[in-house]
């Protein structure tokens, strides 16, 4: 088992995983926050918000450490932390929110909020991402896998490793930054290789991968589902194959993240000769938060001891207004205060100098004892025009149910909330290349949502007066991403469009 053997020979052990498995989640998080505060204790932010005074509370029992932290340090979203602190980092200033100057920035996928977010990436964060990645690789020992798999290639479909440099810092996709810093021992497994990975033209990159596909023996693929499906379809078409296993017979594992895989699964599996093992990851531009740790689970284990301190805000009307903005004066919860089955927006403080930063994702604990979570959506991607409280999780499940019922494959979709006279309406746009009755599909999805969401049922009788649906070729969704400069890599089509991005989408459709 070349990969596992190499990791173990190089002294990478299960210590961190065992530590999390047998330690108190709160104690792990307390120690993680302490490390972060100590490391950043000489920064501008530490001076303004009294990190040393906060640290003085850690020897005490109880919640004093957290009370000091949450009372002294404000909650940030991207716009607020950028305006106050991170703009200094882009100007080359050091010791702002983290020691020294920041040389790398990850450009977020821009599925909500600002179109181009520059997220600082430190050497400590790169190491943390690598350590968590190793922990996930080591979980493969829990599967009944053939030894030969661990000698196969790993195809990682991500952003360009040829980063933009303006004389002060480098910027690009997180996948491009981390792929450019892969350890030497990993190079023998890594595909498409550094030369192809540097290519900034997404179309050319895909063509190069297709061209080289017969030369590689791939066992594991890693990437965003939509783009990997497009790539595999291109390979099958080029070489006139029945399935991708005709060219990569030992392809066994698909590591994915960023969006729910459920809407893609039906179409993806048509490209296979045998089932794959699907491993979900929660790797955001801000850090590697969680990964699927055990077979046959759809949940992921939150990583509590690797450079991230978490806080949780119940995602409901008490804590958030109708525009999904955090209300003033709310008190988040620590890891020991959360409950199963409740949706929470996450705040993170990280080894890249994010502090009490609202990442924008909404999660739900399915097991408190094991810190297992599922992602249920984005704070900005919930639709609640009139109290329907429709989550991305609801939407994904409704679409999957419709696929199964109508025997179709839906590759992409997005939903708009719009006025309808003095009341409201939802406009669905469905991307499929199958023949489908639009009105029937609309009725099926509408009915599925009524089954999944009680609030939706209520509002469909009152303020949510209309649900309409338009069927589009799936290529239209990817053409729009290309026009927006969001093609490939980590970029995903937003499940809900609001504001300027909604207007841009509607204007784009008018030109089609």
Automatic annotation (TrEMBL):
Domain (GH3 C-terminal) ranges: 394-498
Segments traversing the membrane: none
Protein name: GH3 auxin-responsive promoter
Organism: Echinicola rosea
Pfam families: GH3, GH3_C, GH3_M
Superkingdom to which the source organism belongs: Bacteria
Domain GH3 middle: 303-368
């Amino acid at each position: 088992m070349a990969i596992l053997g190499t990791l173990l020979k190089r002294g990478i052990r299960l210590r961190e995983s065992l530590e999390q498995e047998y330690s108190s989640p709160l104690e792990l998080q307390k120690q993680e926050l302490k490390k972060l505060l100590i490391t950043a204790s000489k920064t501008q932010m530490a001076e303004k918000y009294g990190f040393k005074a906060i640290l003085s509370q850690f020897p005490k029992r109880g919640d004093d450490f957290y009370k000091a932290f949450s009372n002294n340090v404000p909650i940030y979203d991207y716009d607020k932390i950028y305006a106050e602190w991170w703009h200094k980092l882009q100007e080359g200033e050091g010791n702002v929110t983290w020691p020294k100057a920041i040389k790398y920035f990850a450009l977020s996928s821009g599925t909500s909020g600002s179109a181009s977010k520059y997220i600082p990436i430190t050497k400590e964060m790169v190491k943390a991402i690598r350590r968590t990645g190793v922990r996930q690789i080591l979980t493969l020992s829990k599967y009944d896998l053939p030894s030969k798999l661990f000698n196969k290639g790993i195809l990682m479909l991500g952003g360009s490793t040829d980063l933009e440099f303006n004389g002060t810092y480098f910027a690009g996709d997180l996948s491009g930054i981390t792929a450019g810093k892969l350890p030497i021992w990993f190079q023998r497994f890594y595909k498409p290789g550094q030369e192809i990975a540097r290519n900034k033209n997404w179309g050319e990159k895909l063509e190069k991968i297709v061209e080289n596909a017969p030369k590689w023996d791939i066992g594991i693929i890693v990437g965003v589902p939509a783009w990997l499906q497009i790539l595999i379809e291109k390979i099958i078409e080029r070489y006139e194959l029945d399935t991708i296993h005709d060219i990569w017979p030992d392809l066994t594992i698909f590591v994915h993240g960023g969006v729910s895989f459920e809407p893609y699964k039906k179409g993806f599996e048509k490209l296979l000769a045998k089932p794959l093992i699907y491993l979900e990851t929660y790797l955001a531009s801000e850090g590697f938060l969680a990964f699927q740790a055990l077979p046959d689970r759809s949940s992921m284990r939150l990583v509590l001891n690797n450079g991230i301190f978490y806080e949780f805000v119940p995602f409901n009307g008490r804590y958030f207004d109708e525009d999904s903005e955090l209300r003033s004066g709310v008190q988040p919860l620590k890891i020991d205060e959360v409950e199963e089955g409740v949706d929470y927006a996450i705040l993170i403080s990280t080894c890249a100098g994010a502090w009490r930063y609202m990442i924008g994702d909404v999660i739900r604990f399915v097991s408190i004892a094991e810190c297992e979570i599922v992602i249920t959506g984005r704070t900005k991607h919930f639709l609640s025009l009139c109290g329907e409280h429709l989550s991305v999780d609801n939407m994904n499940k409704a679409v999957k149910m419709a696929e199964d019922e109508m025997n179709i494959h839906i590759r992409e979709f997005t939903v708009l909330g719009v006025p309808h006279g003095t009341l409201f309406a939802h406009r669905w746009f469905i991307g499929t290349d199958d023949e489908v009755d639009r009105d029937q599909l609309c009725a099926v999805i509408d009915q599925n949502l009524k089954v999944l969401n009680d609030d939706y049922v209520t509002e469909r009788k009152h303020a949510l007066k209309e649900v309409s649906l338009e069927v589009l070729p799936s290529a239209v969704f990817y053409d729009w991403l290309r026009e927006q400069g969001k093609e490939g890599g980590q970029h995903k089509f937003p499940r809900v469009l609001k504001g300027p991005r909604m207007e841009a989408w509607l204007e784009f459709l008018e030109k089609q």
